Amino acid sequence: MDDIVLTRTLRSQGFDGRDLGRMRRNGSLLSVRRGAYVRDRPAERTRAEEHRELILATVPQLHDGAVISHASAAVLHGLPTWPNAMDRVHVTRNRSSGGNRRAVVQVHTAPLVHDHVTAIDGLSVTSRHARCSTFVVLCLSNRPWRPVSGRWPTGWCGRFLTTSLRIWPGGRGLDRQGVRVLRAFGRSSS
Questions:
Q1: For the residues 45-70, what does the mean pLDDT come to?
Q2: What is the pTM of this model?
Q3: How is the chain split into domains, by residue range?
Q4: 7 to each of 41, 47, 55, 74, how far by Cα in Å?
Q5: pLDDT tens digits, residue range 155-175?
Q6: Are 72 and 91 in contact (CB under 8 A)?
Q7: Nearest to 183 by CA among 154, 159, 156, 162
């Protein structure tokens, strides 16, 4: 599944557009996204496996500096995520503006601190701490969202979230929302 073949690679090997069309029709090339194919894939795949394939097909086509983030990072970390968040590959760029949404890629912009980026299988991915921060942002957003389990995360993520909500650098409004989130999960705000 991880053997992504790019159109530019096939063209450099001497295949032209007619050859690629023939290979798609006879099933020797299976499209992942525009400009990227696989030669074989399992008949049964989970939504996370499909998304991982899309990530691997998209990364070679991105400009330098893109870091896999949000739901896409959750898939690579093996963490659960919600299905509609896997419609696009999410990447974050270390800048203050210029995010956009395309057919296959959602570009987010944010300052990326060194310890919020890690490598998984050679890909730059936001770390588990950054992934956990995304959870905090979702909790503090105005969108209705609740964790699937309805329980507060435990272990390092729970400790990280509790600390993040108490020291969130956004002013008193976010602090009050953080307290609301903690209370909603039955946690003390002190």
A1: 92
A2: 0.70
A3: 1-41, 47-126, 128-190
A4: 18, 24, 16, 28
A5: 555 555 555 555 444 444 445
A6: yes
A7: 162
